[in-house]
Write a structure and sequence with these properties.
5-stranded mixed beta sheet, binds 6-O-phosphono-alpha-D-fructofuranose, about 25% strand
Length: about 325
């Protein structure tokens, strides 16, 4: 790839248009859709940054489809994304962690051609203690045409390999957005002074042989034996040794894994026998990002992006990170 002039200032909009030009068939619609996501991210981060000052902290009196108490910021972030995407004219179906069913979007011409699945505010349980949270998104093209008569399920329940784009925004010490359209992973930092996401790094690669593992070890006793064995190995001098980091917001833990290497995992546990994380709007988009950066994402046996979904909110075990680490865990799981 041609080296950029280090003095060049590239916004995410310019980058998306450049990416688009590489796909002659791509219309401007895609960049128009992604700019709806960056707009939503700018609005959400402004609220997240002031959470302690305005009455936006704390819980609502409602639970989401998973029986999890919704935070006020969950509802706010969900509404903002809906409003920023539903009127773009090119979205047909929206699916959110916070809503039980997909939203069918109507426009003058019928239904737009894109499907956007999202976790509006991942890690929201951490908001009240000022720990990084984030937004995760996954974009598909509809597989149906004409009127949507099945509640959008055929268009939503696609394997992750069909994703056109995926990414996340992590609201941390700075607001960073990562996205991929299948041509590498690119990072942007929000410049609060201008409200623009500026290119920070492109074609990011996950470090090989990372020495960080990230898992909630409180669940250790109910992990599959292969996972327990790998963690025991990782703690030995022979292994490195590894260090452990666990933030409790998947978007922050996966972002660190992308930058520093290693592995993030949420195995099946006694409390979550199918895993806790959701396939469609957490595991799949993060799998697309990490695979594009040279890593792997599996459920312990199968490539996450090849899983054929049966419902919008289905959960999955997740092992995601550097090829060596994820492969080693899978080998131990295979031994039983
Ligand atoms: P636990 C946040 O609630 C979340 O969905 C992910 O962001 C995070 O990785 C996981 O749950 C943390 O779960 O059981 O370790 O608190």
């Amino acid at each position: 790839m041609a080296e950029r002039d280090p003095d060049q200032i590239i916004t995410i909009q310019q980058h998306i248009i450049e990416q688009q030009r590489k796909h002659p068939t791509a219309s401007g619609e895609f960049s128009w859709l992604l700019s709806g996501i960056t707009l939503a991210a700018s609005i959400i981060q402004a609220k997240v940054r002031r959470a302690g000052l305005i009455n936006i902290l704390g819980e609502t009196d409602t639970d989401n489809v998973h029986g999890e108490r919704q935070q006020k910021l969950d509802i706010f972030a969900n509404q903002i994304i809906e409003r920023c995407l539903a009127f773009r004219g090119n979205v047909g179906v929206l699916g959110s962690e916070e809503l039980p069913e997909p939203i069918i979007v109507h426009s003058r011409e019928g239904h737009g051609k894109y499907v956007v699945l999202f976790d509006p505010l991942d890690g929201s349980g951490n908001i009240d203690v000022n720990v990084s949270v984030g937004t995760i998104f996954s974009i598909y093209e509809r597989v149906t045409s004409g009127p949507i008569t099945d509640g959008g399920l055929k268009d939503v329940l696609q394997p992750g390999v069909n994703q056109l784009a995926a990414g996340y925004i992590v609201y941390g010490s700075s607001t960073v957005m990562a996205y991929t359209t299948g041509d590498g992973v690119h990072l942007f930092t929000l410049d609060p002074a201008t409200g623009s996401f500026m290119l920070a790094d492109e074609h990011v690669r996950i470090p090989e042989n990372g020495k960080i593992y990230s898992v909630n070890e409180a669940n250790f006793d109910s992990f599959p034996k292969g996972v327990q064995d790998w963690i025991h190995w990782a703690r030995t001098k022979e292994a490195g040794p590894f260090t452990s980091r666990y933030i409790g917001s998947m978007v922050a833990d996966v972002h660190r894994t992308l930058i520093k290497g290693g592995v993030f995992m949420y195995p099946a546990t006694a409390k979550s026998p199918k895993g806790k994380l959701r396939l469609m709007y957490e595991a799949n988009p993060m799998a697309f990002i990490i695979e594009q950066a040279g890593g792997l994402a599996t459920d312990g046996k199968n490539r996450i992006m090849e899983r054929v979904p049966t419902e919008l909110h289905e959960r999955t075990p997740l092992f995601i990170g550097g090829k060596h680490e994820v492969t080693a865990i899978m080998e131990r799981l295979a031994r039983g």
